[in-house]
Specification:
Layout: H1 10-39, H2 46-79, H3 89-116, H4 124-130, H5 133-147
Bound molecules: protoporphyrin IX containing FE.
Residues 14, 17-18, 21, 25, 70-71, 74-75, 77-78, 83-84, 98, 101, 138, 141-142, 145-146 line the site of protoporphyrin IX containing FE (HEM).
Length: 150
């Protein structure tokens, strides 16, 4: 099956890919930060309810649709003839980092359900460490797709 029809749309698909990436990353940076603040209030505190609403809306209204859109436009780019050189090492490291980013999203979604049940998944220090994960992955991904060092 040929996907030649995607070639004229390449720049538009790439633009939509990056718009979705930005929205997804905004949530991936902010949700662990909300969890750090949420850890600092007791379950019976009224502020805990406010955090639950903020976390649910951020995940469901922004992060889930943005992740799905990033994947759809990213996969369309893969299918566009001549875009991905499968022999290049950078592509494999980008793809591994994207899988890790998706795992991180899944982990945050599981934690949101736990916070909703008034549980406290991880320690505050654990969330501070987790908070750095998307930054490191984002730096790796951008260096790979832009500099293509190997
Ligand atoms: C979710 C799965 C993803 C897939 C399948 C995917 C796939 C792709 C593909 C095939 C390209 C075109 C590469 C080229 O034109 O040389 C691309 C471009 C790009 N991707 Fe992704 N990507 C994904 C997620 C991400 C994420 C999470 C980020 C950033 C954190 C990202 C950042 C970029 C950037 C900056 C470009 C533009 C590179 C250029 O200017 O050529 N992508 N992506």
């Amino acid at each position: 099956m040929t996907f030649d029809f995607l070639a004229p749309a390449y720049v538009w698909i790439k633009a939509l890919h990056l718009i979705s990436v930005i929205a997804w990353m905004a949530g991936l940076f902010y949700l662990p930060r909300l969890y750090i603040y949420h850890m600092q209030v007791a379950p019976e505190d009224v502020r805990s309810q406010t955090f639950k609403v903020m976390e649910r809306r951020l995940l469901k209204a922004i992060m889930n649709p943005a992740m799905i859109a990033t994947w759809i436009f990213g996969l369309l780019l893969i299918l566009t003839p001549g875009v991905v050189d499968w022999k290049a090492g950078w592509w494999h490291l980008k793809f591994a980092s994207v899988l890790a980013m998706s795992w991180f999203h899944h982990d945050l979604a599981q934690a949101r359900k736990a916070f909703e049940r008034d549980e406290r998944p991880r320690t505050e220090r654990g969330w501070r460490i987790m908070n750095e994960v998307p930054t490191v992955l984002m730096i790796i991904i951008v260096l790979m797709v832009i500099a293509k060092p190997f």
